[in-house]
Amino acid sequence: MNNVKRYGFLIFILGIVLLLTSPFWVWQVKGKKDLDLMIVDKTVPDESYREHKGLMWLLNQQKYRQSDGSSYREDTDYIGYDPKEGKPTSVPESAEGYDAVYITDTYGVYEEDLDTENVSGSRSSKVYGGLEEEEIDSLKTMALNEGKTIIAEFNSMADPTDEKVRRKFYSLFNLEWSGWIGRYFPDMTSEEVPEWVRNNYKEQYGKDYAFKGGGFVLVDRSDRLMILNGDDITDKGAIFSTTKKGEEEFGEDLSVAYSYWFDIVEAINPDEVLAEYSLSLTDKGKDKLKGINLPTTFPAVIHQENRQFETYYFSGDFADQPDVPNLYQTSGLPTWRKWTERSGPDEETAFYWKAYAPMMDTILERIHRQKDAPKAKAQKAEVEDGIKLAGKVGSDYVQINQDGKWKDLTIKGVNMGIAKPGHFPGETAITKEEYLRWFKQIGAMNANSLRVYTIHPPEFYEAFYEYNQMAEKPLYLFHGVWVNEEIFLKTKDAFAKENTEEFQDEIKRTVDLIHGNADIPDRPGHASGSYTHDISPYFLGWVFGVEWDPEVVLATNEKHKGMKDLKGEYLYTEKAQPFEVWISTMMDEAVSYETSTYQWQRPVSFTNWVTTDLLDHPYEPSEKEDMVSVDPNVIKATDQLHTGLFASYHIYPYYPDFLNYEPEYINYLDHRGEKNNYAGYLNDMKKHHTMPLVVAEFGVPGSRGLTHRNVDGLDQGHHSEKEQGEIDRRLFEDIIEENLAGGMVFTWQDEWFKRTWNTMDYDDPDRRPFWSNAQTNEQQFGVLSFDPGKNRTDVLHVDGRREDWAFKGIEPAFEDGKHALYVSSDERYVYVRVDTDSVKDKDSYLLFDTIPDQGQSTIPGVDDVKTKGVDFVLHMKGDQSAQLLVDSYYDSYYYHYGNLLEMIDKEPYAGKKDNGVYHPIRLTLNKELTIQGKTLPFESYETGKMQFGTANPGDEDYDSLTDISVSPEGDMTEIRIPWQLLNIKDPSLKDAMGDMWKTGIEGKKKIDSINIGLYETDGKESYAYPALKDGFMDPAAFYRYSWKEWEEPTFHERLKDSYYILQEAYGKGGK
User: Fold this and answer.
1) Which CATH architecture has domain 385-785+1054-1068?
2) Any bridge partners for residue 922, and if so which?
3) What's the CA gap between 294 and 228, in Å, rounded?
4) Does the keyword Transmembrane helix apply (predicted)?
5) What is the DSSP code string of 812-858?
């Protein structure tokens, strides 16, 4: 019995021992897992190895071993700076032998890091650091060609990495850095706050750093600070939390305070965000950030997964954990620390155990599981009679082959131009990284097609190829071949040798480059270079030519009257006019060349538009807009063309004019039961075509300027970005409901170089790409905006807030008690801010003297005040209405249409200086028209009417048409005025319209400044700057606002509201 008890006791003790030691022996018996992780850390100034120490501890604790069986050593198993040897190593060209790459930090090593502990955080010279271009190129190769997962953290691409390299990093990780970093400090007086923060604050704001308690320090790449403290914040700091997708990925909700440095990034695809930071701010603090267009919630973890590779980006110093346990050979330790670690904004280790370790457990297991998975297969073409087919046409739709079957595809497309700000199209300045980012955004918009009009630089085709290697759903290309319109118009004969030979050469160049087999020499105004990427599987259809000039079409038909029909190998015509024979011949030659050279075919079409459609329009007032047709129905495919033909038209709801007057169209009831001229026209076109009909261009601009009206309000211009999207969606729905083959919205990106007929005489055509003219609607058709400023915090948003003015350090023109005046400008607007006691029940007048030696000496409606040289007056009635007026002598609209063209009534006073008369600012919409014997008068509209609202895209009630915003307290008014409204022809060179009565519309004068005065009154009391002296405002005392000329405009990209509306529409409509 005693023996039994003794044995029982020993077993009990043994059980206790086993239980107590179980974390150690369980770890020992746990199986090892092979994982070769390339770890890159350039920030190793000493032997603490803190930037990658936390990562290596986790690898070892989870029993991941390198292929040679060894565990990870923090002092040897990384690429970067070696503090023992004082030498760096570089990222290799290939990841052969590795399963994944983890970049913990590339900030680098600095002189003071090597000499002292640098507790103060002062700046010093770089010894080594930054991501190099060859390294980011290698990383891309590892991902795209070798299928490796790439992980990177905060400080992997920020300073001191070069901007060009940073752009490549963005492209690889599918994100963009805002240029801002930040951190929550529990104690703003502690030594943890770097010395440079204190110094920069004093330099930027002109006052001593005197913050106490907790606070956020936010700093941009130019070292400009925004500090949130006191009643701006709550006591929770920065909160890290997983999104719904993150919870699914990691198997749990991870939420914890994060207390170290982070960067503010934006995911190109928001669906890839697995975790976010939320800054714990009061409403006051949130409004401060909104004032400089910074978010309060932004990505913390972004996971990109495509057909070729995966990337993770951690926007924080996640692996920077110097205080990990010395012992890692213990099972369950991370879990125990996760549940026992105290959490709070002042606890630096909690995040590591409660968020980073669980995340990495999942991510490392995923990499280990997938490291030997097969790569995705390339798209395979269908073959008929030895010819590869990119697509076919059915009875109503273009078709693609899926799983061996031809299926209808509703075209949900986007047109893309070839220019960006600061460049004309012929300079082909768009980079590969820009193209690739745009393709990703277009794909995320649920578009399936992209159209280009002409040959783009090689970077376009490289990016397009790479995108389709990665994308789950391909993006199909419709490619144009451009006609030299200058020669076309000059010869007035499509068959002229100059036209035909150049067009044939361009066709062959385009066919070759599509197959990655072209070297195009430099040609002024054209793309050139080596084209090596074969995109033929994704090239769905040809769209040859341009919007044909009807006079050239008619002249060609008359010159070659009686020409026989084409009988080509792939195309033939029946009862065709000579111009139709010519375009058919060109298309037949293109198909022939591609078939014989590359054994590929794809659906074929040519560009057409409403002006040369196949219908008769008795309600069209302009003979040129309905003088001739180019009919696709007369062109047929032979049995040798396996792909077929489709029709493609540019169709807008407001042009030509007959669309607003033809009863059959304006009375047509659409699928909504509403009158709809656009749907009526589409219905008529569908009935008259024997092939699928694609609307190759549709859309309206989100612009301030207006050019054409539409009977249903679908005008060409003066739409907010939200209205633009709603109308574009409506037009696309009409295309789908009228059973057309789909449509491609015009256009992807805004185009600063563009002109439009009712503003083109008032600017300098040689300088258009260097500034953004808000009055020219053609510049703002894009769903991607190029906003002025280097980034979104570099812009003044007219939203009734003062924070952006303070942040940018804009000094007042004057301060006088509660009154102050501030002025600034950018590539699109002149900004004016007026501080006062209250705008309520006041009439305020801003006086602008833009050009010397002319202008008015009165203020409209103010009889008892005199001045001199006033060219423009902005009259604001409280916060209700506002109107910009122009000196009648300086009124370009009146001078152009009254004096020169005599289309409006002449006024005897207009040609006299200082005549006492101001005019509303107007733009022309239409000359006098005669339709069916009825005369419609000359039409114009007042463009000088100003609209109140908020122009901050971060506000819920954002309205891009906003001109003026009043602060909630009613004591401040912000105004933005388009340069052209002030008769500035080119702000980049400070050129204004001259004295047009002497030098004409084309005349210009270089100005030194815009001189500004202010007068306000409530009917009882008044205020003037400069102060009145005997009722006179001295123009010599006006504030002289000057600005620097520029050759390189600053700009940044922003997706408009219309993008997201189209995203929803494309996600729902069609097949």
Assistant:
1) Alpha-Beta Barrel (3.20)
2) 942
3) 13
4) yes
5) PSEEETTEEEEEEE-SSEEEEEEE-S--TT-EEEEEEE-STT--EEE
* E strand map for 684-818: 693-698, 706-708, 716-717, 742-745, 784-788, 814-816
Domain map (residue ranges) of the chain: 1-27, 31-370, 385-785+1054-1068, 792-1047
- The answer to whether residue 398 scores a pLDDT higher than 80 is yes
What distance in Å separates the CA atoms of residue 504 and residue 1008, rounded to the nearest whole number?
Answer: 51
Do 274 and 246 touch, CB atoms closer than 8 A? Answer: yes
For residue 160, what are the contacts with CB-CB under 8 A and spacing of at least 6?
107, 108, 126, 129, 130
- Phi/psi at 773 (5° precision): -95, 105
Dist. CA 382–CA 299, nearest whole Å: 42
3-class SS at 1028?
coil
User: Of 599, 76, 22, 607, which Cα lies nearest the Cα of 332?
Assistant: 22
Q: What letter represents residue 78's amino acid?
A: Y
Q: Cα-atom radius of gyration of the chain, to the nearest Å?
A: 33
Contact of 802 with 291, CB cutoff 8 Å: yes
Structure-token pair, residue 522? 């430099």
**The token pair that represents 142 in the structure block:** 């590892």
Note the pTM of the prediction, 2 decimals: 0.94
Domain 31-370 identical in fold to domain 385-785+1054-1068: no
The conformation of residue 538, written as its DSSP 8-state character, comes to G
pLDDT digits (tens, 9 = 90+) for 948-973: 999 999 999 999 999 999 999 999 99
From edge to edge, which strands make up the β-sheet containing 262-267? 225-229, 215-220, 175-185, 262-267
Q: Which residue has the tokens 């400023």?
A: 789
Q: Phi and psi dihedrals of 844, rounded to 5? A: -115, 140
Say what the alpha-carbon torsion angle 1027, 1028, 1029, 1032 is, to the nearest 10 degrees. Answer: 130
Q: Does domain 31-370 have CATH number 3.40.50?
A: yes
Mean pLDDT for the chain overall = 94
Amino acid at the residue 849: D
Give the ranges where 878-936 is alpha helix by DSSP (H). Answer: 892-894
Q: What is the pLDDT of residues 490-545, one digit of tens each?
A: 999 999 999 999 999 999 999 999 999 999 999 999 999 999 999 999 999 999 99
Per-residue tokens: 393: 């046409």
The CA–CA distances, whole Å, from 451 to 418, 460, 651 equal 11, 12, 15
